[in-house]
Amino acid sequence: MNILILGSGGRESAFAWKLSQSPKCDQLFIAPGNAGTGQYGLNINIKVTDFEGIKRIVLDRNVNLVLVGPEEPLVKGIHDFFLADDQLKNIPVIGPQRYGAQLEGSKDFSKQFMERHNIPAAASKTFTRETLQEGFEYLATIGLPIVLKADGLAAGKGVLICTTVQEAQQELIEMLTEAKFGEASSKVVVEQFLQGIELSVFVLTDGTHYKILPEAKDYKRIGEGDTGLNTGGMGSVSPVPFADAAFMKKVEERVIIPTVEGLKKENIRYKGFIFIGLMNCYGEPYVIEYNCRMGDPETESVMPRITSDFADLLEGVANGNLNEKELQISNKIAATVMMVSGGYPGEYLKDRTITGIENVRDSHVFHAGTYLDNENVKTSGGRVLAVTSLQVDLFTALQQATADASRIYYDGMYFRKDIGFDLL
Ligand SMILES: Nc1ncnc2c1ncn2[C@@H]1O[C@H](COP(=O)(O)OP(=O)(O)O)[C@@H](O)[C@H]1O
Ligand SMILES: [Mg+2]
Question: Which of 59, 99, 118, 166 is the most buried (most CB within 10 A)?
């Protein structure tokens, strides 16, 4: 089959790398892709939200399956667009329809969903401009610190953790009445703070059956020791040592099964990934959030650990027979170090020539923010390259990924040298 991947980051590079190895994958297209995805397939320069443009690619290139990388086209209804079009309706899209994508696109929707299906999560209430006063009363009752979440997509910036009630009140006013995060904060979820350690669990579902993909842990802060500003993610590891069999059994029974069953009961036809952001609170799992796609940079650690045919699994999602497919997972440990541009996550350097990728010894280099300028690979984004090493133990994987990242150079390059060390 011919497969089209939508997106241009490290996640999509890891998908492209994995799918290009499948005997089931004939031609692979990536839109828009980056300098790295071009090694695995053909890049086509169309934006992920240009649905008409995507339709043209699908028809011109005889695409048989579309894998959606990022959330934006899902939340904007790319799957619905396909279903509503006579020429596209039989071409499977991996990723939920707009309604189901609200699991990520609306924090209020996802909290209500968890509540309806008794899925463990922090206590919370949602407020609007009209119920600001009730919001103030709630703030005074839930204890400190207080978590405020803009309801809609806010590019990973819409969650605030406030240490005093006064600060929370001020932020709530700014979010609800001054549109601090635009339309996204016209509703705000006020939530109890959960103490614990986070991890990401990934589920692939055809709407009835599911497979649990390798779990991962990501590192969000720019600075070593988890300090400084939040980023899209500075690294990841998989598996997660504290997600042992007993913990994962609780996750499956209390979270994954009720989630997949809940979607079915509510007639939400969901084909794609469910990314479950979890807090491990003294051995008990609580859901922090759902996302409707894979994580980045978690995918870069997850894909190398899947040893079975990923295109075959996606075909199972499309055809509703995922239960008949085999998911094999390597026991090896994957560590990913994200190399970023100088200045990131603020204003950052661009168009710097990258050298030394050929010197990498025992890691995969997944391109994220890169492009080809004639023969030169140059930087275009804040997150530039994901360097992933798969080894027999975590220490070796971390050491190798870090050593290989050091073999690459571009002006202003930076990466964290402490990814995963908290887990050793
Ligand atoms: N209830 C909570 N208790 C403690 N920390 C939280 C809570 N909710 C969110 N966080 C922290 O804030 C981060 C961002 O929240 P999340 O719901 O994942 O939003 P998003 O990824 O959309 O920005 C989480 O990764 C977690 O570190
Ligand atoms: Mg999150």
Answer: 99
